[in-house]
Amino acid sequence: MPSYKTIMFLGDGMADEPVHELGGKTPLQYARTPAMDSIARDGVSGTLLTLPAGYPTSSEVANMSVLGCDLATEYCGRGPLEAAGRNIPLGPDDIAFRLNLVTVENGILKDFSAGHINGEDAGELIDLLNQKFGGDGIKFYSGVSYRNILVLSGKRFSHKVKTEKPDDNHGEPIDKHLPVALDPEADFTVSFLRKLMLEAQEIMKDAPVNKRLKAKGLPPANGVWAWSGGKAGSIRSLKEKYGITGAAISAVDVIAGLAKCLGMEIIKVPGATGYIDTNYEGKADSAVEALKTHDFVFVHLEGIDEVSHAQDVRLKIKAIEDFDSRLIRRVLSAVGTDVAVVVLPDHPVPVRTGKHTRTPVPVSARIPGVSPDSVMTFDEESCKHGILGSMQNGDLMNLLFGRKR
Question: What one-character-per-residue DSSP string does 2-25 give?
Fold first, then answer.
């Protein structure tokens, strides 16, 4: 185990492609990011493949890759990780699905986040779903904003179901992207999920919440989308793998759940929202404090991903600059050069499409005792020329903490 401590900054969805209106630059190249650039200038760079072929192009896969998980043996789906993040116990016959509250218009998915519905309104709708569909091994749980959880219990339900990500299907008819059974034993499960996704629209459209949202001119949360179901898996802890202790700072359940499975302390920051109005300074200060008691601190920022899915290039630039100036710079000013500092996205979300891609992401790492390479700025193109080369699997964590045990 290295003698230094490490902090990792992860900007969810930060990587992108050249944008015409930015003069052919990516949002990351265009944004003013002196703190991230300093990590590249004083450190070593490369790229990391986080979404390998054969796995969903989703954040749980990407963050598992970043944190050194073995996808072949440890991937369990997003649902179980989010359940862990909400402290929802899962038995051996329980299957957890991520459940988005969405906006539907004439059967078309218009917004995978239902206008980033607030938690109180979302909770009211989850109560309604429990009234109409719950019971007999079916239970809905509130999460953060539009991000909620469905747990199916009992041997009649199966996890052998293929689902699609809602944020990949904006503008598409919901009935063209419903769950599909991968095995005859999943037919009953698929029948229920299809019924839920189609009939919920009729039940939710006149809910008091949606009448209030309509009166305010806000998008209704008048549908649901179930996806990435699975059973609780077996993820080895950071202590087992690298002999280190860790802490995680994030506003979203999937990261909290993954961190919990990795044996990390989950640090809740007041005002952390999972969007670009989050408490950047609070996250920074909590990270500095966590370094006093942990070997590794993982700071995750969700908001960049959200505005990338919304295809808002100006908000993406602002979110990247806020990440740099309000969070990363604040931490760098408080820690010495004896602390290793790493910055990267988990996956790209090009604003052109608003969808995840499998393109490897840029990585820069300032590591005590390691001489800088020639990379001077942190961005998708510059990092390709760093001495770390093309990393994959557990390469990044092995670089920081030694080979797995």
Answer: -SSEEEEEEETTBB---BGGGTTB
Nearest to 241, CA basis, from 60, 393, 55: 393
Domain 5-74+235-401 is found in CATH 3.40.720.10: yes
- Rounded-to-integer distance, Cα 102 and Cα 112, Å: 5
Enclosing H/E stretch for 393: none
Look up residue 51 and give its DSSP letter: S
103: tokens are 């906006």
As a whole number of angstroms, the distance between CA 176 and CA 195 comes to 14
What is the residue type of 142?
S
Read off the pTM.
Answer: 0.87
Tens of pLDDT along the chain (405 residues) come to 578 999 999 999 999 999 999 999 999 999 999 999 999 999 999 999 999 999 999 999 999 999 999 999 999 999 999 999 999 999 999 999 999 999 999 999 999 999 999 999 999 999 999 999 999 999 999 998 999 999 999 999 999 999 999 999 999 999 999 999 999 999 999 999 999 999 999 999 999 999 999 999 999 999 999 999 999 988 999 999 999 999 999 999 999 999 999 999 999 999 999 999 999 999 999 999 999 999 999 999 999 999 999 999 999 999 999 999 999 999 999 999 999 999 999 999 999 999 999 999 999 999 999 999 999 999 999 999 999 999 999 999 999 998 654
Given a contact cutoff of 8 angstroms between Cβ atoms, the answer to whether 254 and 81 are in contact is yes
CA 32 to CA 45: how far, in whole Å? Answer: 19
Tell me the one-letter amino acid at 366: R
Instruction: Outline where DSSP puts E strands in 163-268.
Output: 180-181, 223-230, 246-249, 265-267
Q: What are the residue boundaries of the structural domains of the chain, listed by start? A: 5-74+235-401, 83-230
Taking alpha carbons only, the member of 3, 49, 8 closest to residue 394 is 49
Tell me which residue has tokens 């037919």.
187
Long-range (24+ apart) CB contacts under 8 A made by 104-107 are: 104/174, 104/201, 104/222, 104/223, 107/173, 107/174, 107/175, 107/201
